[in-house]
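Long-time lurker. I teach an intro course on protein structure, and each term I like to show students one example going from raw sequence to a predicted 3D structure in token notation. This year I'd like something fresh instead of my usual example. Would anyone be willing to generate the tokens for the chain below so I can use it in lecture? Attribution to the forum is fine with me.
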Amino acid sequence: MPVAVLSALVRPLVEPHLPDSIEAKYFTSVEELLELAPEAEIGWFDLDKKEPMVEAVKLATRMKWMSSIYAGLDFLPHELMLERGVTVTNGVGINAITIAEYVVMGMLVHAKGYRDVVRAQEKHDWLVDSPGKVELAGSKALLLGYGAIGKLIKPRLEAFDVDVTVVRRSGGEGVLTPDQWRSELGTFDWVILAVPATPETTGMIGKDELAAMKSDAVLINIARGEVVDQPALVEALESKAIGGAFLDVTTPEPLPADHPLWSLDNAHVTMHLSGRAQTKMFQRSAERFIQNCRRYVAGEPVEPQFDLTLGY
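-- Reply from a regular --
Happy to contribute to a lecture. Here you go:
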């Protein structure tokens, strides 16, 4: 009988629906996880800290399928898992709705100067004019990354009459390819990063890309902090070379208290909260896990599968 090792936090959501042919063992601490990991044929090892997850994977020599709520699993030992033939399913799409909504929120916060509105309320100061006068309607957005999140961002922005151009390898109408978007950067009001974290995307927005953007353009990053050359971004924001940045992700995380990004009026730092701004994350993850358990015992492919070779 396959043994599934998973967190006791999801036990109420999972246990009543697990197939009888799977034996579940639940951990309530890192120590229990590391003790149980060698027994796991099925592992759901998610923790807030990545280091013990990596250690559990190394100990799970019998594991055939690993499930995770995380979409980005770049921190796992990919080569070891490939060598062992582990199938990995990730949380791609689980948080897509709330992250897409966060992008819209970030654009509106910047466009309407809402940070200054909040500050005025805190000071009981009645403003007589809006600190932000930008309208989303008629603006142009470049969307880098067209996975589960990107596919939800695009229609939400189009509902605000934003002209959205997608970057995609296959090209097509209204689409730029990876070798085209940099030369077009100067035509966009918003540059939205929703790409996976891979060696190919690391530092994809650097000094040259920031210099090519419009002076009032806004960079929005809901991907990974490493996708942006952060010192170059700080320099661009300090010199007002670009209009602003809305950063749900930074390097490192948490951002050090003395980091200049905290104090820049044209930077919004939202502490990687976009995926957590919901109440359904664990429910959706548990439902996906149960569906995959049924597929697993039936000998059917589990999904969505994380490609350990590509890194996403």
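Some talking points for your students: The chain has two domains: 3-94+278-297, 96-276. Residues 281-297 form the longest helix (17 residues).
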